[in-house]
Amino acid sequence: MANEQQLGPTAQKVLAYLRQNPRAPFGAGDVCEAIDCSTTEAGTALETLASAGLIERQESAGGSVTYLAR
């Protein structure tokens, strides 16, 4: 599991945003608008955080992916 201090600045912003909105699912597009970054940056940060176990990744039957704070 990654240490939060080892995260890059975008991942830190994403994690803070998700924690401010507990139990609300967000996709990369939602997050990029909220923290002012590209969709690619948001998606990479979200996957990094999910891999580190800091957030939860959820995939719907239709294939859309959302993320939640733990």
What structural category do the secondary elements indicate? alpha+beta
Main beta-sheet strand count, sense and barrel state? 2 strands, antiparallel
What is the end-to-end distance? 14 Å
| CATH fold call | Arc Repressor Mutant, subunit A
Helix and strand sequence: HHHEE
Q: Strand share of the residues?
A: 5-15%
Average predicted local confidence, pLDDT: 92
Relevant CATH superfamily: Winged helix-like DNA-binding domain superfamily/Winged helix DNA-binding domain
Radius of gyration: 11 Å
Features:
single chain; 70 residues; alpha+beta; Arc Repressor Mutant, subunit A; two-stranded antiparallel sheet; 2 strands; globular
Outline the structure in words.
The structure is a single chain. With about 70 residues, this protein is of the alpha+beta class. It has a single domain, classed as Winged helix-like DNA-binding domain superfamily/Winged helix DNA-binding domain (Arc Repressor Mutant, subunit A, Orthogonal Bundle), CATH 1.10.10.10. The chain is built from three helices and two strands. It has a two-stranded antiparallel ribbon with strand order 1-2. The mean pLDDT is about 90.
